[in-house]
Amino acid sequence: MIQPARCAPQQHWDVIVCGAGPAGSALARRLAGRHRVLVVDRELPSGSTRTAQTWRIGESLPGSAAVLLRRQNLLERFLADGHAERCASVSVWDSVEPVWFDALRDPAGPGWHLDRMRFDAMLRDAAHQAGAANATVRGRLEVQHDGTHWQLADEHSGAQHRARVVVDATGRNAALCRSLGLRRQAADDLVCVHVLLAAQVDDVDRSTRTCADQDGWWYSVRVPSGERVLACHLDADDPALRELRNARVLLERARRLPLLAAVLPPDVGAAQTHVCPAGSVALDLSGCAQRPGFYAVGDAVLAFDPLSSQGLFHTLASADSAASAIEGYLQGNDLAAHAYWSEMQQVQDRYFTHLAATYAGPVRHRERPFWARRLA
Ligand SMILES: Cc1cc2nc3c(=O)[nH]c(=O)nc-3n(C[C@H](O)[C@H](O)[C@H](O)COP(=O)(O)OP(=O)(O)OC[C@H]3O[C@@H](n4cnc5c(N)ncnc54)[C@H](O)[C@@H]3O)c2cc1C
Questions:
Q1: What pLDDT band is residue 299 in, cutting at 50, 70 and 90?
Q2: Is residue 255 in a domain?
C-alpha cells in the first residue's frame, strides 16, 4: 500500500514513463508536446554521469527504422550523428560455408552500425526538448491504481507521482510489470560475453560476421569509433562461461573460427569483458488490457535475442504504437489499448516463429545441448 509521504507532495501528470532508454524516450517525445509527461529513471551511482559511460552493446539498426525516426522528426539529426552505414553481413550458420548477404539489396536500405551511447542520448535529449520532465528514483518503484489514476512511489525517497497513464519502459528489468505481478516468460537462459577491442590499423572490414559454434554463437563488427565488438552467446549454465570472462580466452576461442580470425586483432590489450543476459523474454499480455492506462514498451514487452538485431526497431515501433493508443485513451477511447496489446501479441508470435526457424539452421550441431535445447 502506498502511504502519502509527509514531506513529499504528490505531483500530477498525464503520463508517467518509467525508463529513459530508447523506448521510454521515443514514447515521451511523441506525447510531450500535447500532454504533461514525466520520465523517471534510476539515479546513477554517485560520481558517474551518463556521458561518462562510453560503451553499450547493441549497435545494429535496420534501415526500416528510418520511417520511425522520420515520424519523430529526428531522421536528419540522426543522420548527422556519425553512425556508420551497415554493409554486407556474412555468416557461417546453416552450413560451414560462409554465406554473404548484401544489405544494399534490402528495400528499406542497409541500416546502420550505431554509436549506441550517442543514439540513446539523442532520444533522451529529444524527449526533453519536446517538453518531457525528468525525475530520478533511488529505490524500488511501487505502483498502484486507485480506480482512476496510477500512483507511483519511490520507496527510498518517498517521492510520489500521479497520472492517468503509466508506462513500463524499464527494459529487461520490467520493474512495473513485476511490481504489478504480471508474468514474464523467458524462452532460454542465453547470456552474452562481449568485449570492445582496439581494431588493427589495417582493419577496414565493415561487414557483420556471425558464426554458429558447437555451444553457442558469435559475432563481430566494427562500430563507428573504429573499435571492434566481439560477442559470444552461450547458455548461462555452460561451465565455459567462467573462462570466457577472461578477454584473452574469449579472443583465443574466437580466433579458432576462420570467419572471425580474419578480422580480429592478435591481442586484447587492456580490454575487459562484460556479461549480460541476452535471451528472449516475453511479457504475458493476457492481463494487460484489463488494466486501464497501463502500457509497456520496448524490452519490457519483448526482449529480443541479439541474433534478431530487432530490439531497437521494436523500441521505436512499440513506442509509436503505444503513443497512438495513449492519445486515444486520454481522449476517452477505452478500446485503444486493445488494439495495442493485440499488435504486441502478433509481434511476439511472429518473432518466436522466426527465431525458432533461425536456431534450427545449424543442423550439424543439433546434438549439442545449446542447440538441442532450442530445437526442443
Ligand atoms: C547482447 C545484446 C546485443 C544487442 N544487440 C542489438 C542490436 O545489434 N540491435 C538491436 O536492435 N538491438 C540489440 N539489442 C537489444 C537492445 O539493446 C534493446 O532492445 C534496447 O536497449 C531496449 O530498449 P529499452 O528502452 O526497452 O530498454 P533499455 O535500453 O534497457 O532501457 C531501460 C531504461 O530503464 C531504466 N530502468 C530500469 N529499471 C528501472 C527502475 N527500476 N526504475 C527506473 N528506471 C529503471 C534503465 O536505467 C534504462 O534507462 C541487444 C541486446 C543485447 C543484450
A1: very high
A2: yes
| Ordered strands of the 60-61 beta sheet | 60-61, 112-113, 84-85
**pLDDT single digits (tens) 194-203:** 999 998 888 8
Task: State the average pLDDT over residues 335-343.
Answer: 94
Determine, yes or no, domain membership for 210: yes
Report which protein residue has its CA nearest ligand 1's atom 53: 278
- Give the residue-averaged pLDDT of 217-238: 96
Assess whether the C-beta atom of 57 lies below 6 angstroms from ligand 1.
yes
DSSP single-letter state for residue 103: G
CA–centroid distance, 93 to ligand 1, in Å, is 26
Instruction: Assess whether 29 and 162 both reside in one domain.
Output: yes
C-alpha cell at 233: 552467446
**What's the pLDDT at 7?**
45
Domain count, the chain: 2
Q: Which of 277, 312, 338 is the last residue of a domain?
A: 277
Identify whether residues 341 and 210 lie together within a single domain: no
| Predicted local confidence at residue 53, as pLDDT | 60
Nearest CA to ligand 1 atom 5: 58
Quote the longest CA-to-CA distance of the chain: 67
What confidence score (pLDDT) does residue 202 get?
Answer: 87
CA of 56 to the centre of ligand 1 (A): 9
Same domain assignment for residues 119 and 241:
no
- How far apart CA 331 and CA 139 sit, in angstroms, is 33
